[in-house]
Amino acid sequence: MKKSKDPFEIAFEEQEESPPESPVGLDENEPQTSAGPSVNLGEDFAANPTVHTTDPSTSSAVPVAVGTSGPIAKPKEDDEEEEEENMEVELGKLPSRGDPDKTAKMQEILAHFTTDQMSRYESFRRSGFQKSNMKRLLSSITGSAKISIPMTIVVSGIAKMFVGEIVETAKVVMSERRESGPIRPCHIREAYRRLKVDGKIPKRSVPRLFR
Amino acid sequence: MSTAGAGPSSKVKTGSSQPSEASLKRKRGMFQKDLHHMMYGFGDDANPLPETVALVEDIVVDYVTELVHKAQDVATKRGKLLTEDFLFLIRKDLPKLNRCTELLSMNEELKQARKAFEVDEEKLVSID
Predict the structure, then answer these.
(1) Which terminus of chain B has a lower count of CB atoms within 10 Å, N or C?
(2) Residue A70 contacts B where some CB pair is shorter than 8 Å
(3) Which residues of A touch B67 (CB under 8 A)?
(4) What is the DSSP string of A157-185?
(5) Which residue, A87, A66, A179, is CA-closest to A170?
(6) Closest CB from A71, A150, A168 relative to B107
(7) What is the rounded distance in angstroms from the CA atom of residue A102 to the CA atom of residue B51?
(8) Which pLDDT does position B58 carry in this prediction?
(9) Which residues lie closer than 8 Å to B87 by C-beta, 6 or more apart?
(10) CA angle A191-A197-A201, nearest 5°?
(11) Residue B58: which of B91, B89, B35 has the closest Cα?
(12) If you measure CA to CA, which chain A residue comes closest to B107?
């Protein structure tokens, strides 16, 4: 593995000794250093669900993505039930979960980011499925009109991580085929096939009748 | 896009019941904007190809549908569909499970924080 002088790599090595909850996929991606730091970044942080952000350096105050489905700057339309006003709760007010060690390491890494990496990381943290859309989808699937907020939050979180798995696997596929540029549907399909083999895609266990 | 993921998803589609068929007929691009940002965050190009986004959206809707159906199967034994059913389904997948518990507890904290905030406000108002 070639050693790059990228500050991210340096800071990343510091973090090496306390590995977060890394899925198996992280090992597959180790040899893929040529894809650039931003890809490694995505994998590492996607693999680390307990990453806690107390980073004040982002000027736009990266909101803690509650439910990961909160839209970034759009006003919330569905303020019906116990809906949160907005992500304006100061990050400082939230008690830091996990060890201060981890957060310190996080901040160390974040300080070394290039603007590119920062913007990608920002997208990663702030993106999420819109609660209203997810709610609508869930009620159309279940058939019941009332979907609780925590359920929307949970499903949005699961779906986001699933998207992460797909995109990362697709990137792996791309690097194996030595292609570059935006991800193409064929990569996604191959990634989906691989995830299926791994058993990450839920499928109906009951065999269909009258096949 | 109907040929996208022809093998796996067609089996799933025809196996699923009516409601999900109807939901698949919804307008495209329900999550398009969100997926754009999400895919960029996870490592794709700054401008993902529209067909890629559409395919990922289909896959995600499929995934959520299957997840919900499974959760309903688990839940019918007990009655209502609860959040715990989803947590049960992803119990084997540690990163997802941890993330979900983190999200739920953050939600609780925010609720508490907001309640405390409102109580403070009332106090201020009454003092005035």
Answers:
(1) C
(2) no
(3) 155, 158, 202
(4) HHHHHHHHHHHHHHHHHHHHTT--SS--H
(5) A179
(6) A150
(7) 38
(8) 92
(9) A154, B97, B100, B101
(10) 75
(11) B35
(12) A66
* Residues in B touching A148 (Cβ below 8 Å): 83
Number of Cβ within 10 Å of residue A47's Cβ equals 22
Residue with structure tokens 């507890």?
B105
pLDDT (tens digit per residue) in A47-84: 444 444 333 443 443 444 444 444 333 433 444 444 44
Measured CA to CA, the distance from residue A93 to residue B66 in angstroms comes to 38
Q: Classify A61 as helix, strand or coil.
A: coil
Rounded mean pLDDT, B100-111: 91
Q: Which two tokens stand for residue B9?
A: 């998803």
Q: Which of A138, A183, A208 sits opposite B68 (nearest CB)?
A: A138
Q: What is the pLDDT of residues B107-128, one digit of tens each?
A: 999 999 998 888 888 888 887 6
Q: How far is CA B90 from the centre of its chain?
A: 13
> Is the complex ipTM higher than 0.85?
no
Domains of chain B: which residue ranges?
27-79, 90-128
The candidate with the shortest Cα–Cα distance to B96, out of A32, A25, A35, A99, is A25
Residues A25 and A169 sit within 8 Å (Cβ to Cβ): yes
Rounded to the nearest 5 degrees, what angle is found at the Cα of B39, between the Cα atoms of A130 and A102? Answer: 90
Interface of A with B in 131-150 (CB under 8 A): 133, 137-138, 140-144, 148-150
Judged by a CB distance cut-off of 8 A, whether residue A67 touches chain B is yes
Q: Are A165 and B44 in contact (CB under 8 A)?
A: no
Fold of B27-79: Histone, subunit A (1.10.20)
Q: Residue ranges of the alpha helices (H) in A48-179?
A: 100-111, 115-126, 131-142, 149-176
* Cβ–Cβ below 8 Å for A155 and B86: yes
